């Protein structure tokens, strides 16, 4: 397969400012998003922040010990005859509730911008940019931006080093010799403001007293800046080809190039301690090598032989999603839902989304990207143990909404979710299937076994029916249900069974004694609740398709995402058709569409699988930069991109039990000619 041709035919290009689609350069641990100038010159023109973010850059307002989880009020819920506390509401200590929810938060590390001067000496505005041609080369990871300012051409190359959190920029323009082009860097205040739900959190350019920016070293062509915010700090290294650096504000520095020549280069490195010294040439070459290696390794897929008019768009989404997930979701900690683009939900990860961000990596032969964040679960295992013990359970209970430290936070929803619990077990199994080894089993055994111990402790035996129930209290993946009344949601029931069966398999592979409770509970999970021939959201929800037909139709996940060993296929087929008919799709989320496609694929409804995957719905739209748009303020949603890649891999390569089938999830009427190499079957 001509991989480069497949990739480069989807290089995103812009010929005007698109307020929803900034391009980004990055390396899985760091990303820099730019506007049409190649830097962050006109952020006010964009609907979301132009981010400069890393996996190490976090901040605690007032320091990390201002509050602890013990300061948050707990609301008590009856749990099969005993009371268990969950921090769902601010209660009598709203300050602690909101601080814990907002801290730690990911930092906007700094804004790097051009300042263009008009002939009059005034600063140019966005409307003074003309003849715009901007391209992101997916094969090299390099952004090239061309435009004119009052008729004078500017060409900018923007790249990120593959192994260093460093942005490199090359500028070519007569404006340099005319003294009409400058570069400035500005740093925002670090605190989060309490914003409505998940809307993007913009940087705070006021409150200068809340942080310090010190110029600690200045040489002929290099400077070091030290940033301090409460007890947190980081360092910025700035290097340039020629020119002088001036302080132009309390937290702003301006670089003025020398006026001879029409070429100017600089690099900016961000680091917790000592930023690296890297030339622009090395940065570009590193980016080119890194991204070429990414594309040449792992799987590839080609839809060009298909006659279905939607095939090119599907291929575009697949190619761009691979690039974006590698950049934003392939780092050493689970990503936030907007990746390294900008902060949503205060920059924290939602662990119930980790599967959607990263389950595709092993299927596409890139399990190494997932293994980086899998190691993080080993680090936070003591926190998960403490969470389980604090609620009277055994084993380890994974939190839901977390910062880099893995500590759970209060939330009106997060403490009640359980479907993140089997995620690390299944992700570990997918990595094992991709590359079986005893070393991997030993590395993640505690994650799998202690998660299973919590699961059997959490499941409750119905003495009369002799089955194990889930909840209440719980909130299903479809979050519009009450904690105190939700019982036995189908997806969670099936997922509990799959997770426990994986634990049994791992013990057998390691030749260790199997916990008989894992076997007992897995074999006796309650049947998924149904009525009138369709599955319900949960046992106490007869109005699933009339009042609760919004948010995630997560009952479908029991067959599709999961193998459906508890599921009647005809009942699930009826459920799928009912969901298609009555669901309020404007309330769904980006990963719901690939979830439905996976259910349809397992049921042999291949045309419906493609229809779901490419449904014309706002939250299933993919912008020019490839991001899955959801709504104003949430224009990037990586679980949608990751879910798309998982569904496509499954539809092309199949799943356990039909590995020999070719493209089992695509129609066989000749409209889809799907060629691929390197994909691996789904569980």
Major sheet: 9 strands, antiparallel
Total strands: the figure is 30
Largest sheet: spatial strand order: 1-10-11-12-13-20-17-16-15
Which whole number gives the mean pLDDT?
Answer: 96
Tally of helical segments: 17
- Report Rg: 26 Å
So what's the CATH class of one domain? Mainly Beta
The name CATH uses for the topology of one domain is: Beta-galactosidase, Chain A, domain 5
Structural class: alpha+beta
| Unreliably modeled segments | none
Global outline: globular
The portion of residues forming beta strands comes to 15-25%
What is the CATH homology-level superfamily of one domain?
Answer: Glycoside hydrolase, family 65, N-terminal domain
What would CATH call the architecture of one domain? Distorted Sandwich
Give a structural overview.
With 683 residues, the protein is α+β, with helices and mostly antiparallel strands. It has a domain of 237 residues: Beta-galactosidase, Chain A, domain 5, CATH 2.70.98.40. A nine-stranded antiparallel sheet has the order 1-10-11-12-13-20-17-16-15. Strands 9-14-19-18 form a four-stranded antiparallel sheet, with no helix packed on it. Helix 10 runs antiparallel to helix 11.
């Amino acid at each position: 397969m001509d991989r480069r041709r497949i990739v480069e035919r989807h290089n995103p290009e812009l010929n005007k400012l698109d307020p929803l689609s900034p391009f980004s350069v990055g390396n899985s641990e760091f990303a820099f998003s730019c506007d049409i100038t190649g830097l962050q010159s006109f952020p006010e023109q964009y609907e979301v922040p132009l981010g400069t973010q890393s996996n190490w850059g976090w901040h605690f307002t007032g320091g990390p010990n201002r509050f602890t989880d013990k300061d948050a009020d707990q609301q008590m819920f009856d749990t099969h005859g005993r009371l268990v506390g969950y921090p769902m509401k601010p209660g009598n200590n709203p300050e602690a509730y909101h601080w814990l929810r907002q801290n730690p938060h990911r930092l906007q590390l700094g804004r790097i911008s051009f300042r263009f001067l008009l002939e009059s000496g005034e600063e140019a505005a966005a409307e003074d940019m003309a003849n715009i041609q901007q391209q992101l080369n997916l094969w090299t990871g390099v952004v090239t931006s061309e435009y004119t300012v009052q008729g004078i051409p500017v060409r900018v190359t923007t790249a990120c080093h593959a192994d260093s959190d460093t942005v490199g920029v090359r500028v070519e323009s007569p404006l340099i010799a005319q003294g009409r082009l400058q570069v400035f860097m500005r740093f925002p205040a670090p605190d989060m403001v309490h914003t409505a739900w998940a809307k993007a959190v913009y940087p705070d350019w006021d409150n200068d007293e809340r942080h310090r920016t010190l110029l600690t070293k200045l040489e002929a062509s290099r400077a070091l800046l030290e940033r301090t915010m409460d007890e947190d700090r980081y360092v910025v290294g700035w290097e340039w080809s020629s020119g002088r650096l001036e302080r132009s504000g309390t937290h702003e520095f301006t670089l003025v190039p020398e006026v001879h020549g029409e070429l100017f280069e600089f690099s900016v490195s961000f680091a917790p301690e000592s930023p690296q010294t890297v030339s622009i040439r090395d940065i570009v070459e590193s980016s080119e090598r890194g991204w070429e290696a990414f594309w040449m390794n792992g799987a590839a897929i080609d839809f060009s032989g298909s006659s279905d008019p939607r095939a090119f768009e599907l291929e575009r989404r697949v190619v761009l999603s691979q690039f974006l997930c590698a950049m934003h979701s392939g780092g050493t900690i689970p990503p936030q839902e907007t990746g390294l683009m900008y902060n949503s939900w205060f920059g924290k990860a939602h662990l119930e989304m980790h599967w959607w961000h990263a389950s595709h990596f092993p299927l596409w032969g890139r399990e190494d990207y997932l293994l980086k964040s899998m190691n993080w679960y080993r680090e936070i295992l003591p926190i998960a143990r403490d969470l389980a013990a604090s609620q009277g359970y055994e084993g380890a209970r994974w939190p839901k909404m977390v910062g880099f430290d893995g500590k759970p936070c209060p939330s009106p929803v997060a403490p009640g979710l359980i479907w993140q619990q089997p995620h690390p077990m299944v992700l570990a199994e997918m990595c094992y299937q991709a590359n079986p080894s005893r070393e991997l089993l030993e590395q993640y055994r505690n994650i799998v076994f202690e998660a299973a111990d919590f699961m059997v402790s959490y499941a409750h035996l119905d003495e009369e029916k002799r089955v194990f129930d889930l909840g209440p209290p719980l909130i299903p993946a479809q979050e519009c249900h009450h904690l105190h009344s939700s019982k036995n949601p189908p997806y969670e029931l099936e997922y509990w069974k799959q997770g426990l069966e994986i634990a049994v398999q791992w013990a057998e592979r390691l030749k260790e004694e199997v916990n008989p409770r894992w076997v007992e509970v897995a074999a006796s999970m309650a049947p998924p609740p149904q009525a009138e021939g369709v599955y319900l959201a949960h046992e106490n929800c007869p109005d699933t398709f009339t009042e609760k037909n919004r948010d995630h139709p997560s009952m479908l996940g029991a067959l599709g995402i999961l193998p459906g060993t508890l599921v009647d296929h005809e009942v699930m087929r009826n459920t799928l058709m009912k969901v298609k008919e009555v669901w309020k799709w404007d309330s769904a989320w980006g990963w719901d569409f690939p979830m439905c496609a996976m259910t349809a694929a397992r049921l042999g409804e291949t045309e419906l699988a493609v229809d779901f995957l490419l449904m014309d719905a706002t939250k299933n739209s993919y912008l020019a930069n490839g991001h899955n748009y959801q709504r104003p303020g949430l224009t990037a949603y990586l679980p949608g991109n990751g879910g798309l890649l998982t569904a496509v891999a499954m539809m092309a390569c199949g799943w356990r039990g039909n590995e020999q089938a070719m493209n089992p999830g695509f129609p066989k009427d000749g409209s889809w000619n799907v060629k691929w190499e390197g994909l691996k079957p789904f569980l």
